[in-house]
Amino acid sequence: MSERRLRFLHKSYSRTGRWGWRVARRIRSFGWGLALFSTIAAVLGTNVEDSAIYMIFCFAVCALATAFIWVLLRNASLAGRRSLPAFGSVDQSLDYLVEITNTGPQSIAAMTFEEWPPLPIPDYETFANTPEPGEEKRNIVDRTLLFYRWSWLQERERGFSLLEASDSPSLIAPGEKKQVRFRLTPQHRGILRLAELRVLLPDPFGLFQKCRLVKTPPAQITILPKRYPLTPFALTGKTQLQLGGEALSNNIGQTGDFLHLRDYRSGDAMRAVDWKSWARTGTPVVREYEDQLFPQYGVILDTAGPPGKNFEEAISVAASFVSNKDSDECLLDLIFIGQKSYHLTTGQELSRRSALLEVLATAQARSSVNYQKLLSKIQDESEHLSALLLILPGWSPEQRAFLAQLRKNGLTVIAFVVAPQEVTEAYKQKPLLDTYFLCTDQVGTDLMSATSRLKS
Amino acid sequence: MNAYEPSHFPAPPRLLLGVTLLVWGALTNHALLAFGGALLIEGAHWLNWRWRFGLRGYSRAWILSLTALAGTVGFHSLNLTGPTAILAFIEWLPFIFLPLILAQQYGAARAVPTSVFSIIARQRLKRERRLGKDLPDSRIHLGYPYFAITLLATAFTADGLKQQWQYFVCMILLAGIAFYYANRRKQRRILPWLIMTTLIGLSSMASSRGLLTLYDWIKKGGFLSSQGQEAPIEQNTAIGKLGELKLSRRIKWRLSVPSGQKPPQRVMTYAYNHYRSGKWQSFDPDFADYERSFSDLLTIADKKDIGEFAFDTDGFQVNDQPSTLRPPIRLRGAVTSNRKALPSPPAPVLFAQATEIDSIEQSQLGTILAINADNVLDIEIWPGNDDSLREAPPTQRLRGTQLLETTSLALPSNSRETNLLKNLVTELALDQKSDREKIKALRSYFQTEFAYTTHLKITARPNRSALTEFLTSAREGHCEYFATATTLLLRASGIPARYAVGYAVRERANNAGEYYLRGTHAHSWCRAYLGGRKEIVEEEQIVVQSGRERTVTIQREVWTGGTWTDIDLTPATWINLDSPDPNWQEKLGDSLQRFREDFQLWRANEKNRDWVNLVLIFVAVALVIFVVWRLSRSRIQQGADAVHSSYQPSRTLSDLNALLPQLEKTLGTKPAHESLTRWLQRVLPEFPMQSYQRLFILHENQRFNSYTLSESEEKEFETLVHTLGQTCAQRKDQ
Fold this sequence. Notes:
heterodimer; A: about 450 residues; Rossmann fold; 6-stranded mixed β-sheet; 4-stranded antiparallel β-sheet; B: 4 domains; 8-stranded antiparallel β-sheet; about 45% helix
């Protein structure tokens, strides 16, 4: 399709989308129904002698006109403040409260509160280069107009569906404060901004409604990626000397078994000093613990490829490993996302995981990745690691070469490839060593099955 | 998903649908049926019976409704003709959609999936979901749409002003209540609703009255016509239009002629006497109201449910006595209006109906109308000899209050046209010829200098009308040009003449003595009063002057002694050009049309009608019994799932329960006192805790709550159960 036509379609949909949404929200289902009914009555009601259908037409037109004028005369001035949690997860409902204050001089009755999602307008590049799944099977009109692609992209980028308050008050007096509750189910990961709280003021027949903006400070929630349950697994590879259990403990320092006491040497930590023994002997004495050996692993998330289900599932796989609490005998130390690396070296366990999940929440797919640069970075930073978990959102020749190169460099790499069913089926017949194929449509099952095999 | 979807209609309040159906019954005279329907619909609020229909069940209800719709349309199209046949089903919409609303009312689900109404939408939804799109179920409650359909059906049959205003009051009340309950409880406010209902009621009443007034005004010719006077019967011709003349090939009438008789060459439907800018009008100055210019024929026999209508009873024996007249011709055809013009040969005497007709009316110009005839008209026409019974002789009439005019001699008001006609009369020396010679001269003039064509290329230009173009430069056109020119030239030469339309009888049908009158056989010609002479008659007449009635004595010319004669000067080639032999598709269409009309005539017989109705009732009852029998087998009690789920273990066991025997083989038998969830956590701790938590939530939803898992949840549940099974299998291997 020519670029000119694509640009025209993109421009048209961008403009009409904004306008259409706002008009659609102001006409209620009964308004649409009555408009349709009046059209039918206009067609059938031309014979005024033999039928009274023309009376339906008159009624419908008068009702629509009266309701429209009524709605124009309604008004409200409200302010609100949201109480939001810091994090949410994809597909998991979360509740939040909004405190509404009537700042106007009049009481407001018969209202509904709605939280409108920001209207996603896909950019031209995305619109032009991201075909909808199964688009090739659509008819020629759909393929020419690309409306379904536009709707699909909008749906994909929409953070959440329109929310309606579960308990809108029936009356708010001037200066009065009321609380309303919303239930939000995030549809995709990332930063979710809430900025358009509306109060809907319908006419008594419920045909139209005025949608007034409630003044609220802007608010946002970080939506973490979807995570899958994992069976406990053990990784192959060398075990490194580590300060025992640090990754799992709330205490900082050595946590291995007590070995013996010895004299204080310059540089020993103050908290290692055994104060009682010092008091008893008069010389500074420190406690010495057994060093612990733990396998440590890193995660590499390949961000090459188009945005889409494969990429989202790959992020979910990475998030599943990051958030896995059941791996009590191995530690996650490092994660590469695209060209960047993130270390888990400071802070408490929980906060470190949250920080990593936050990073994953905002990860974006890239059209190209410099694998050579990434290889050298991994080589530099992962010397101490027992093994690397490589998560690939595809199985292209470049990705295969990258995996081969990692292994050639002496690293223990366990690969998880998120791929369509035909690829996973092909590799079920001739499995590759330490490479697990996860079918895009059943990543949860395949991942569990893969990690259970890791254990064995 | 929110509990209340803005795109879906809520359920209407109790009794609203039932009362609306009763109003429908009262205004359509189907009170008993309406009462039954209302009981069925509203019974759902008191009966505890419910059915779990699912997509398939609702689809069947929809198909049943569509079948009823097709059946009703088919039934009406066999019984009725014209545009009314297509729309007659509207009256029965509440019963056509009864299966659907009953499925809604008695279904366990609160609303019907919208994909039920379209196979394409269903397939598309399936495909999109297969491609991984998470599309929510779109559902609609059918209560309010059904309410609207019932109101529409009720309005469709409300004829007459009294019934219409009765309907209006009911509609405002019902719609007001409907809209009040359409809002959610917290949004209902009685005072604003009352004000708005009153405002809408008053404004729609005023606009309805306004619409009626406008309709009357337009009907009386107030719009672009005769400045508020009654419109005369008018014939729009194609004179002055461009393009190809297209006429319908459908059979309009069938004419059966008794053996031994020749068919009439043409049969007239309408005659017109006043020409104005390409239009012919039926204008009678004595009767400004054109309906009053028609008079009923005498009803001479109506004892056997068949009426016989005649101009005069002379020469005809009633009550089955043999007639002295020639055997009648028979006319059959579909009736598309309640004032249908009958094509009849000149000088008919009596019309005997085989199907129902309220009356037959006659105008002074010879137009004969069948009033409120049955859908297919079947009538016998006895021909006579006295053509003055049908058409009155030319008479000088008082036009306005002063001008006496013989309408059948009037020339166009356009002076250029009049001058041209007079010049032509002079040129052809018609003034000095007898009536027969005038016609002969005109026939020769048109045959030699003019040609017939259906390709219309004459259009009016400034100062030159289309008729002038035809007579001076173009010299080719279709029958309307020839008939108009002949009529006006005869008038200009002093012969009273009218413009007539009807059919040429040319196409013989397969049945002996039967002829088809198709749309392409429609023709126009001139009716001239030949051999007549003028007499002066003195009479008193009431005229209105300055708003006061006054009796004046007037002398006027009355023509006598002549006969109205068909003068058709269109070149004879027209019939071959306009009416080629029918092709196979047309023959097939003709057969279907004949079958339909003959079936309707057969059904019009009361005996046959009873049989048909009996068969239809039998089929309907059998269908109802079948549906009731099927439904009786799948009935459930409302709320049975939540309260009595333990009594239906086969339906409410979850996938996890199904896995239990396999788990027990490896992990040992589950103690009866311990719950499944605790037992699993105790005996299989290696399964991740977070997976357990999710697994148990889904298991409890499916097992104990009346909650249907979504597609994605079902898939997730299956995955977790499968993995649990695998973990257990690994334990076995160890």
